[in-house]
Amino acid sequence: RGRALSLRARRAEARALRRGASLRRARAALGASPRGPGPEAFARAVAPALEARLDKAYRRGRRDFRAARDFPRKDRFHDLRKDSKELRHELEEAAPRSTAIGDLRRLGTILGEEHDLTMLRARLPRSADAAALRRLARRRRRRLRRRALVLAKGLFSKRRREDAIIGGP
Questions:
Q1: How does pLDDT run across 123-142, given as a tens digit for each residue?
Q2: How far apart, in whole angstroms, are the C-alpha atoms of residue 28 and residue 47?
Q3: Pick from 86, 87, 81: which is nearest to 115 by CA?
Q4: Quick count: other Cβ atoms within 10 Å of Cβ 60?
Q5: What is the mean pLDDT of residues 1-24?
Q6: Please, are residues 122 and 138 in contact by the beta-carbon 8 Å criterion?
Q7: DSSP 24-43
Q8: 32-79: per-residue pLDDT in tens?
Q9: What single DSSP character describes residue 127?
Q10: How buried is residue 90: exposed, middle or buried, by Cβ count under 10 Å (0-12/13-18/19+)?
């Protein structure tokens, strides 16, 4: 247990140092102007860190999309949901006018409903009374998964990635 905590603490410290480095660059750029910070200076200082986080979130989402598409299991769809939320938050920070934000929000909603039905099915008793409800939940989950995969395919294609990074039209 102590070793796990120290590993967790070291990882948190490494993340803080990485964030701190980008914050130091931003502070230096903001302090460089005698009349105060300009938006261009701030954008130049922060852009590399935001772009790196955006790329990482996109790559993770793309990887989990392919996993959910190729081997559909409940944990793969849940990972895709978490990745879509992370990418949406990164986009809202880096490119608030991106056209992908609305699609990512819809994908998260669809996958959230799918996850809720997965949890409901797991908690239903294995009785004849619950069988009809289990069938309905299974059918709805299948439809939701199909919709999610269609939407995710559009989001995690090369063309949309460029839209996401640039900010869309």
A1: 888 888 888 888 899 999 99
A2: 14
A3: 81
A4: 16
A5: 55
A6: no
A7: HHHHHHHHTSTT---HHHHH
A8: 544 555 556 556 666 677 777 888 888 888 889 989 999 888 889 999
A9: S
A10: buried
Q: What is the largest CA-CA distance in the chain?
A: 76
Q: Which residue has the tokens 């908690």?
A: 123
Q: Check: CB of residue 49 under 8 Å from CB of residue 17.
A: no
- The single residue listed with the structure tokens 């949406």 is 88
Mean pLDDT (the chain) is: 76
Tokens of 86: 């992370």
Give the CA distances from residue 147 to residues 81, 114, 131, 153, in Å, rounded to whole numbers and listed in that order.
13, 10, 25, 10
61/63 Cα distance (integer angstroms): 5
Structure tokens at 14: 């490494």
- The span from the CA of 57 to the CA of 75, in Å, is 18
pLDDT one-digit tens code per residue, 43-54: 666 667 777 788
